[in-house]
Write a structure and sequence with these properties.
The complex is a heterodimer of chains A (about 100) and B (about 625). In chain A, about 50% of the residues lie in helices and about 0% in strands. Chain A has about 100 residues and is mainly alpha-helical. Chain A is elongated. The N and C termini of chain A lie far apart (about 100 Å). The N terminus of chain A is likely disordered. Chain B is about 10% helix and about 30% strand. In chain B, the strands form 10 sheets. Chain B has a 5-stranded mixed sheet, with no helix packed on it. Chain B has a 4-stranded antiparallel sheet with strand order 2-38-37-36, with no helix packed on it. In chain B, strand 15 and strand 16 form a beta hairpin. Chain B starts with a helix and ends in a 17-residue tail after the last strand. Classes of the chains: A mainly alpha (about 100), B mainly beta (about 625). At the A-B interface, helix 2 of A face strand 10 and strand 24 of B.
Chain lengths: ~100, ~625
Amino acid sequence: MGVIRFATVLTAALMFGGAAGTAAFAYDGTKCKAAGNCWEPKPGFPEKIQGSKYDPKHDPKELAKQQTTIEGMEERNRKRVAYFKKSGKWEYDVAKIPAQ
Amino acid sequence: MRKYLNSVSLLSVLVAAPLMTMAHAEDKLESLAKSENNWVMQGKNYSANHYSTLTQVNAGNVKNLKVAWSFSTGLLSGHEGSPLVVNGKMYIHTSFPNNTFALDLDDPTRILWQDKPKQNAAARAVACCDIVNRGLAFWPGDGKTPPLILKTLLDGHVAALNADTGAVVWKIENSDYKVGSTLTVAPHVYKDIVLIGSSGAELGVRGYMTAYDVRTGEQKWRAYATGPDSDVLIGDSFNKANPHYGQKGLGTSTWEGEAWKIGGGTNWGWFSYDPDTNLVYYGSGNPAPWNETMRPGDNKWTMTIWGRDLDTGEAKFGYQKTPHDEWDYAGINFMMLSEQKDKDGKTRKLLTHPDRNGIVYTLDRTDGTLISANKIDDTVNVFKKVDLKSGVPVRDPEYGTRMDHLAKDVCPSAMGYHNQGLDSYDPTKELFFLGVNHICMDWEPFMLPYRAGQFFVGATLNMYPGPKGNRQLAEGLGQIKAYNAITGNFKWEKMERFAVWGGTAATAGNVVFYGTLDGFIKARHSDTGELLWKFKLPSGVIGHPIVFQHKGTEYVAILYGVGGWPGVGLVFDLQDPTAGLGAVGAFKQLANYTQMGGGLMVFSLDGKGPYDDVNVGEYKAN
């Protein structure tokens, strides 16, 4: 009986110690893999989320949309500026800018 | 003779020496900014110190301030930023659809010109936090190109208007609202370059800063906040003085996979510029989505203080304040420049920046070295401290956020202990006058897909007053403080009913002016914080005051029109406390103190103004 009690206390102590240990090692931002790279997964979370239950499963087509739209705007702006420099007139509507 | 020549040569050297030590030739805009008759840019000057040397209105007589004249913009919703004053004219901007008005200070009855852009109303639907705009910029012209007013439109356009006529000189596309990318940032003009930020991190927009030739609208450079070094404009000299901040490859390696493509980091706050270093200073915003579990890694270079070459865009330094953000502490707040002696007595060129994360950062602006990083309020609990040597904030894991967990009593909240307000710095007192928020929160993230053009937030928030406020009443959400960046001491601190959202302006008359959400413009003594004067405006304030002189009279002007993030509940009639990204609950009392508005109020001693002669502005019959 005495032994069992002792064992229970020991288990509790180990569990408590374990929990405290986890907290001490939780992500606090101070343990860096390299300069400027100090992220760590939190206790119970994966290093990589791909394939885990937190996988965002991003669609590459959606991810590409912003770059496509920026390239389109940059191209139209280039035409506007070139025509402005040439003619001294600003034409926003690129369809109305005469071909070079 | 020889002796004479020698002495002449010596004299020339002596005369030339001070000129030679001047590292740059002052440009026209910089010299216009030195006249107290003008307020030519949102920060007042390149250092963005928002400080006026005028003393006609001072701590002794500020109680005699009265309204001199006023102007309604004809629009509701939040009126952020401030008007500009140049060469006897005032230029006023509005909320969406971003109209512009030019007024004559001698007779502001007559609107000299007005610009009313036609915009697709769909742009409104992708604005995260009210349809605000932070203001205009001015470029003085060069003889060939007329003086220009530069403006941004919510739908992503940037336009240059002839400052004398309002005619559009050029108009380009910077952002596409169809992918959730909008513009609320004020253009910033330095020399002959106009800088344009970006908005939309709540819709997964990858942030970028763009420089255009002010004369033609031609793109000079574009620097992204995330992705390959070639996109971020990181070269070999980046962070040379502080390699521990991180250098190459981190714009992709601190992300998993291609998450950086929708990684946020937009910059919609305030910039500053030092002609000696030729560096422009600004902060990049929060990473997307708010759900931290969906983007493992430090998520560089979001949440970063940048020093970039004005002409090439190349980054000289980048210091990430909040690695792997878990609280939406968008790092876009103002960058204010000063020269002060550090603790070792060495005079340094500094940059001071109160961040959303509750820390006021002061860096050496020549190379990015950290000088101080102090808590804005002692109730900040997300970080234990910022380690000045390593540069990393020491996180308290108890106040982090993560999936399948409701974090509670996190301070600051996502609205930050400081937000978009543009504050002031008194160089004679070496004090920053900070408009501070006192708001904490509960936060629980959830999974969600990314669809271009749709919101990509992924967190539910409850916000409420911080420990020093009244959580039962939902009041006591703000503070105003005077701060020394070297000692870290606060000379004085005062509580406010609501967040001090709009910023401050300080004068040599020992007065600090600011507007409040409950609809006052207030003046406090800059040495003691004592409240000296206030006036009840038609609506709450989210912009900053300006101080200028016209024909010998000192005026204080401020926009009114409540809105912005704290006003979304009131503006869009929302009741659910978690709506408006959690702001509705925090500001549930706001509607009991103010309603929407939109306009400008101008003050002077005893209300002296253009209509003291009642015949000014009258119709004259033939």
